[in-house]
Fold this sequence. Notes:
The chain is an alpha/beta fold and 240 residues long. The chain has a single domain, classed as Rossmann fold (3-Layer(aba) Sandwich), CATH 3.40.50. The chain has ten helices and eight strands. The chain has a five-stranded parallel β-sheet. The longest helix is centred in the C-terminal third of the chain and has 19 residues, at 220-238. The chain is globular and about 50 Å long. Cytidine-5'-monophosphate (C5P) binds next to α2 and α4.
Amino acid sequence: MMAGTRDSGLGTREKAPVLTIDGPSGVGKGSVSARVARALDWHVLDSGAVYRAVAAAALEKGLKADDEAGLVSLCESLDLQFEAGDNGILVFLDGRAVDDRLRTESVSAMSSKVAVLPAVRAALLDLQRGFRRPPGLVADGRDMGTVVFPDAPIKIFLDASVEERANRRYKQLKEKGESVKFLRLFRDLEARDRRDRERAVSPTVAADDAVVIDSTRLTLEQVVNRVLDEVQRRVDSSGT
Length: 240
Ligand code: C5P
């Protein structure tokens, strides 16, 4: 291998390191990714928000979920930025902070429909890879370690039982004063899990080389520390 291109995986000249954090809906990837990115002072990518932004733009323009050509051209004009905030990843669309607009039921439903289209996923690959910049990137999603950054030196798959994820979501919504039914949340999560895990393109699965962390009985701090320990272990073993 040529001098200067040695790929220890961490801090090569050509490629900044990537830490991928994949997992199912509601497992807390956003909170963990933001905290870890802050601790490392790395960039952060919320790939779910990428699909949500395409979905929101499609709904605004009146595009159908099967209009591949129209959706692909939307992907090409997306202007997204992310920042690690105190309570999660902050999303900026066309330079402006995005609030709950990407989290409505209609955008959630549309995003999982556009996410099954191979042409849309292909069109978003370069956009997502463009976030890989020094000193490093924390990439949050479902196929970060398997498809988008398969050469990432550190991969985490975050999991938790459906009950626990539905419980966390229930508490969050209650705190916001929203009226919600636990059973409805539970069933919605189960259905989304099934769609995401069983789809033909980029299903939610742990990469073979991912470290699986079951967060069912862990606090946010404990998960963040486990992830940071993995990064440290990787740094130690690469001798950088
Ligand atoms: O993570 P979040 O709920 O914001 O993701 C929104 C939608 O985007 C989900 O329905 C999921 O299937 C899709 N998605 C995806 N690949 C990713 C991230 C999200 O297909 N890497």
